[in-house]
Design a protein that fits this description.
With 119 residues, this protein is mostly helical. The protein has one domain. Strand 1 and strand 2 form a beta hairpin. The radius of gyration is 19 Å and the shape is globular.
Length: 119
């Protein structure tokens, strides 16, 4: 406990809300990118798990998680998402992580997973 003036303030070095919680190296961490190319059968799952790990370092709100994920998409997966937003009338600012996760998994993980299992 740190005493400031007549006030007592509890300080814990690992509390998420405190500045300086993560070392500078973690603050510089960039989200993984995904281009939609399935070079390896599990590349979509690897990207998705990488995003989840990234979000453990950064305490974003659900709609900000979706925005960060969208920015990390490249190439044909970015085109897929733009088409999906147009077809479903989705506004990017309204899309939250849970909805994004469902759309992404439906397109890039479930179908691919079962195709790979059949082989």
């Amino acid at each position: 406990m740190i005493q400031i003036g007549n006030h007592h303030h509890c300080y814990h070095p690992y509390r998420r809300s405190d500045r300086g919680y993560f070392p500078d190296e973690f603050k510089k961490a960039k989200p993984p990118t995904f281009d939609g190319k399935m070079r390896k059968p599990k590349s979509a799952k690897a990207w998705f798990l990488g995003m989840r790990k990234f979000f453990t370092l950064h305490d974003y709100l659900e709609n900000m998680k979706a925005r960060v994920a969208i920015v990390s998409l490249k190439g044909k997966v970015d085109i897929w998402l733009e088409d999906m937003k147009n077809v479903r009338c989705i506004h990017e600012e309204d899309l939250n992580w849970t909805e994004f996760e469902w759309l992404f998994k439906k397109k890039y993980m479930y179908e691919r997973y079962f195709d790979d299992r059949e082989k």
